[in-house]
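Sharing a chain and its predicted structure for anyone who wants a worked example. Both blocks are below, sequence first, tokens second.
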Amino acid sequence: MDVASALAYLIYGLVGVVLMAQILVSMQPEEEQISFSQKYKVNYIIIVAAACAAGAWVALEVLLNFDEGSSNANNNHGFTRANALRYLGLSSYATQSQIKKAYHTKARTMHPNKGGHTEKFQNLQKAYTALK
């Protein structure tokens, strides 16, 4: 996902949450009891608002982990930090010890002497080198 798409998702998600909140506020009945159809609508709106918020959260994560282009990618053997972490199966908040452990765990299974593919093992090494 590129930056423009992530920004669009973030904006759409935040606008969706605001609109859903306004709809919920406008649906507040004056009387104490809420009909079944109103409860159904409220539950549906809460689910849609949660989906919008989740989309905004994902877009924000993408924006926060974005590396500024090819100059960093060339220095990191073709891997941005976010891509290298994803290749190792780690979150964006991984520590150096977690990165090292994940690398060694995957290297044991991907090594060509252990039946792995040479190209995949080389990509693993490039990802680890990019995170050092």
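Comments welcome. The two ends are 24 Å apart (CA to CA).
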